[in-house]
Structures are given as structure tokens and as C-alpha cells.
């Protein structure tokens, strides 16, 4: 991966951690519970299946459920990908119009357990979830006091809302392939690979702008034309001159969030000073920007900072920490751990 897009080069909001430790020494050290944010209907042509799994990735489980229900793989959907090397609970959606609900007590797949089944009226699509609740066990921590201090800071001020390194593939391979695709050195026909590479490209560009913004302007400074997001919502508005006096206070209080671009084919959303700053940050990435425009990827905005909800922790001993928190959909536990410990961060969600 080219240096400017390497996740290891991103700015640390709380300074680079001095304490070391081990995350996910075993799968049960990383527990993820998916929260759809709604209760299934109980009726409809879709069957929702909640699976508790370890040692199996989301696509593998989806294919196994399709085979068990004797339906095409495309008839099984899910809200998000979860890591193979973790314990996770997530929903799968099987489209079974006019068919009886299968007897899932007969479903067998190593490392998987059916937790609940119910009917629902609508298809479960990627991103159709409120978020995820995490419980992590961090081991062999070298400096308890340093970590305790950082926990307080993270709970109070949050962390940069970076995309985790797993978004970019092993050693950044997804970015390298996106660049080769942009240069017409690689043909990408498979739909899933196209999606992975485009997602990696825009995620890396967001990280780049977010990192430089925090490093150069800090977390509260508002620029004329900034795209401000109502915290907890996807909607945003452009800051006008009339908004400027009150905006910094509303951002500091968490009512509003600064955003950075997820580039695509179209206006990025910001204007004036903010747009000029973002363009300057991205001026060295014409190939990835060109690929996203060429492939007609829809532009969007993403909050600059991430504040974990319901953050709690307890020390099992002086070197072992149990940490729990909840994150909105699309946010990465990696971003929290990155500010806490100097530890491997290749965690897929």
C-alpha cells in the first residue's frame, strides 16, 4: 500500500499508545452482538435466523444456510460481515415466499449455533442495522496506568472514526488492486471483488482526509462550508456564515459532528473553505478518485469522530482488561483499540 494511505500512518487523537498488549488471543476474547435496532415482524416471506458463530465467516454461513433451505445463495442476505476469528451473533435473512419455515434444529455447521428464528416482511440488506455491541478481552497489557488514563480520554472525547485495516485486505492488497484496476492493469469482473476494491478505495481516501484534518485543525475547528452531521443520523447540512458562531459549541457538546468525504461520482457535499481543504488533501490521489467516478460510486459523508456508547471496563488482573462498548453500523472496534494499545489491529467485523 502506498505510504499516504497506510492505516499505520494515520493521526492518533490521544497520541500514539505507549502500552502494549494482545487483542484476540483467542476467538472468545472478541465478542460481537449485532443489533438490528428493530424487532422482526413475526410474519412475512422472509425467515430471519440469528446465528452464534466462531471459526466461520459470514459468507460461508450464508452459503450453508442456503444449501440447508434448498434455495439459491443469492436468496440469503445479511446486514454486515463478521470476522471468522471471533465469537459473533448476527442475523441472516432467507427469502422463502410460500414455503414453510425449515426445521433449523437439524442445521449443523461446525462452530455455529442457531439462537433464534422468526419471520419478517422485508429483506435484510447490508447496513440495515443499528450497530454492534462488543466485549473485548485485552491480555498481557504492559502498563495498566497508561491504559486506564486512555480509557478515560476515549470515553470522554472519542476516537477518529477511521475504517479499520481489515477493510483494505491483507497488507493493503485491496488498495493495490484498486490502483491496478484504475490504471487498466487489472480487469475486475466479479461483483463482490469490485465492491471490495471500490469500498477500500473510498475508505482509504476518507481516512486520509480525516487524519490530516485532525492533525492540522483539531477536533473542533469549523471551516466555512463544512458538512455537519446531526449526531446519530445520516443527514447533514452545509455550515453557513450564520451557523459559524454556534457550530463549534454544538460540535464540542456532541450535538453535531464534523464529517469527511466518502468520494464518488458527484459533489462531495462540502463547500468553500472546507471543500478546498479536502481537495488539497486528496490532490495526490487522482487514480483512485478517477476510478470511483468512472464506476459511478455515489458520494457520501462520514462523521470525523466516533464516540463509543455504554463504554465500561474492568480489570481481571493488572495485565488483563475486559472492555465493552457499542458502536453504530459501519464503525470499527479497531478504531477504539488503536487509540488504546500498541497491538495488532487486523480485526474484521
Kindly describe this structure.
The chain is α+β, with helices and mostly antiparallel strands and 349 residues long. It has eight helices and 15 strands. It has helices at residues 58-69, 144-157, 173-182, 191-217, 247-252, 272-282, 286-294, 333-340; strands at residues 22-23, 30-35, 46-54, 76-78, 87-95, 112-120, 131-139, 159-160, 227-230, 236-238, 256-262, 300-303, 305-306, 309-317, 320-328. Strands 1, 2, 3, 4, 5, 6, 7, 14 and 15 form a nine-stranded mixed β-sheet that branches. Strands 10-9-11-12 form a four-stranded antiparallel β-sheet. A two-stranded antiparallel ribbon has the order 8-13. α3 packs across α4 (191-217) and α3 (173-182) crosses α7 (286-294). The radius of gyration is 21 Å and the shape is globular. The two termini are 21 Å apart. Residues 345-349 have low confidence and may be disordered.
